[in-house]
Amino acid sequence: MVDGREAFGMLNTSLPHSAGSGGIARARSLWASQAHPTKKWIPCTALRVEDGFATATDRTPTIRRRMSDTMSPKAAQALLPALREAIREAASLAMPFFRSGAQTTARTWSKAGGSPVTEADVAVDTFLKIRLSALLSEAAWLSEETSDDAIRLGSDLVWIVDPIDGTRAFLTGHPDWSISVALLAGGQPILGFVHAPVTDRFYEAVAGCGATCNGVPLSVSTQTGLRGAKVTGPKPMIDKLARGGSTNGEAVAVQIVPRVPSLALRVARVAEGSIDVGLVSSDARDWDLAGADLLLREAGGSVSDLEGTRTTYNRPDPVHGALIAMSDGLRDDVVAALTRG
């Protein structure tokens, strides 16, 4: 297993000059100056690995398998301790650059499309690529800060990573940014993680085994209709939902929740029941969604398009159209309202 110091020894050689390799050195220095105690993470009962197979303090060895193999729930669960550790450690690389309520100390530049990226994004991305690739060597890779490689299209297992989901929030000192990680098998997530370092909320899910936040099982809200539902997302989509939910010509009254900058966190909050409906405008990418989508599925909901069709991942184009994150109980009402609105 590659630890943080070994990973940082590889970082500078893997980055283009434009990515701010000096920032990687700064992150390495900051990381090395911090204490990194071993923590014992105890999963909820639904996620506990069978006795003798893996424990909360194990460092899971690299798993070698044919790409056509289907990963069993038992094998997926065995990865949990090492993944928790890697994601927590990745967060410790970003946090020294974060300033609550103030501009980040990280160097920043713009990508080709104009969206911002920081040296913290690159440090976390590179660190996770090293650690996760060592953990499951045959899995392909897709992330926001790494050039896309078409080899993933022929791979059954694929890591999907957003090193900092909500970079603008990170830049400006807003707490709602996250690290998002998913492992896909056959285009669907089988492991999903969303970690919000500032608030120390760690969400995880294994397909078929439930979802938790900090060890507490997640469940979507029990809201059964649009009236009074807690909704977040772009205002035009919220207005359309409210108009379409009307039965007497008046827009249905919903509770508008402030928009969550991190899309992964927005979906995670639907999974935990603090938001009933999360609306997503066009242009979300696989890495924004895959980890949180599994959380929501396991908690009793899903991410779907405006017709109610569930999302799929690892397609040639990772860009999605407009989407809805909602409980299964609200699906019919939400889809019908957006169709009418």
UniProtKB/TrEMBL annotation:
Its EC number is 3.1.3.25. Coiled coil: none annotated. Mg(2+) binds at E144, D162, I164, D165, D288. It is an enzyme of class 3 (hydrolase). One of its GO terms (molecular function) is inositol monophosphate 1-phosphatase activity. Belongs to the inositol monophosphatase superfamily. This is Inositol-1-monophosphatase. It comes from Methylobacterium bullatum. The gene is suhB_1.
